[in-house]
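Re: flavin mononucleotide structure - here you go.
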Amino acid sequence: MLISLGPQAFISPAPVLLVGTYDAEGRPNIMTAAWGGICCSQPPCLSVSLRKATWTSRSLQQRQAFTVSIPNRKMVGQADFAGLVSGRHEDKFGTLGLTPQAGEHVDAPFVAECPVVLELLLRHTHELGSHIQFIGEIMDVKVSRDCLTPEGLPDAGRIDALMFSPMSKEYYGMGEFIARASAIGKTIKREAHLERHTDISGDRK
Ligand SMILES: Cc1cc2nc3c(=O)[nH]c(=O)nc-3n(C[C@H](O)[C@H](O)[C@H](O)COP(=O)(O)O)c2cc1C
């Protein structure tokens, strides 16, 4: 039985994204964001929704660019801290011992220690209420060499991304490999198709 919890900002899991920006004085900053994800394939776009009061939201609008660095499970403390303290008052990179590396394609810094980094140019801004949704076009995806498969694709197990559960406010790690996409569903598709076209006696309809 499903129990209604009412209208809530909830999805499970939510990602843990470190949004990187330079402020008006050129100081690098990161903030943690869970309200975000891919929102278009072509052009490749990602959205993050940030409270107006965040230093990041202001910097992002000034510079029209941002990065998203994806922390792994070992970085959980650093990711949490980046979501507790504002870059308005604190050099979070310095306090956390993280390296702000300048984006190659955009005017924003990323976290050199993270296994995955995206560089984005701001394309759309939507005022939604408590949050402003920023949609960025992905100009580049960088993945740490040791997190690539032999075929050169991102290996989710090695990236070992953190996940966030809103409401209970807990972090989780990446689970185990379960199945290949666009393959496991095909067995059901094939069976359903066969069933639809075969009558009870087993004869093809
Ligand atoms: C796990 C986690 C997820 C968060 N997700 C968001 C989010 O999606 N949007 C947002 O505006 N704030 C979010 N926050 C809060 C900001 O990270 C926090 O307000 C931060 O201090 C803002 O930093 P800044 O002022 O340097 O930009 C989150 C915090 C945590 C710990």
